């Protein structure tokens, strides 16, 4: 399997509870390398643009307001099959359905406050990495 990069976000519920290190340990234990990382405060416009595909969903307003409620940590994870591997480490969107040992099972509070985002396809990964990081910030 090829080496890939994926975009990860440690969401406000997790940064607020000081869980960045514990979540990063889950990535590293799974063989994912954090090759870029920064803590930022999103604006409502930026959160809306990032989640534009969900614009028509009933939870869009709640989702974007949540994403600006505290700073987030955006990061690029690299590894063999990193996109799928990260989705496995994250667990199901709703923590009630997440497998034992996953980040969402261990840390998420609800389907909305679910601690992490991860790209769900190669196309999304390329788009989402470019949304947050310039080429100069991606040293590999
Ligand atoms: O890729 P995921 O983050 O696992 O899930 P997704 O792409 O289906 O949805 C993106 C985010 O939108 C998800 O992490 C949390 C939020 N969301 C999804 N479904 C619901 C939701 N938020 C609320 N409040 N209710 C939902 O049913």
From TrEMBL:
It is found in: Cytoplasm. GO terms for cellular component: cytoplasm. ATP binds at residues 11, 59, 87, 93, 104, 114. Coiled coil: none annotated. The keyword Nucleotidyltransferase does not apply. The active site is at 117 (pros-phosphohistidine intermediate). One of its GO terms (molecular function) is nucleoside diphosphate kinase activity. Major role in the synthesis of nucleoside triphosphates other than ATP. The ATP gamma phosphate is transferred to the NDP beta phosphate via a ping-pong mechanism, using a phosphorylated active-site intermediate. This is Nucleoside diphosphate kinase.
């Amino acid at each position: 399997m090829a080496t890939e990069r994926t975009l990860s976000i440690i969401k406000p519920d997790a940064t607020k509870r000081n869980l960045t290190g514990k979540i990063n340990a889950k990535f590293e234990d799974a063989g994912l390398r954090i090759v870029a990382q920064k803590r930022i405060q999103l604006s409502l416009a930026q959160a809306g643009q990032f989640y534009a595909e969900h614009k028509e969903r009933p939870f869009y307003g709640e989702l974007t307001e949540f994403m600006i409620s505290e700073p987030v940590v955006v990061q690029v994870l690299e590894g063999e099959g990193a996109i799928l591997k990260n989705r496995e480490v994250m667990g199901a969107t709703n923590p009630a359905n997440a497998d034992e040992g996953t980040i969402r099972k261990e840390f998420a509070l609800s389907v909305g406050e679910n601690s992490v985002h991860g790209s769900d396809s190669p196309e999304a990964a390329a788009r989402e990495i470019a949304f947050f990081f310039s080429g100069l910030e991606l040293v590999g």
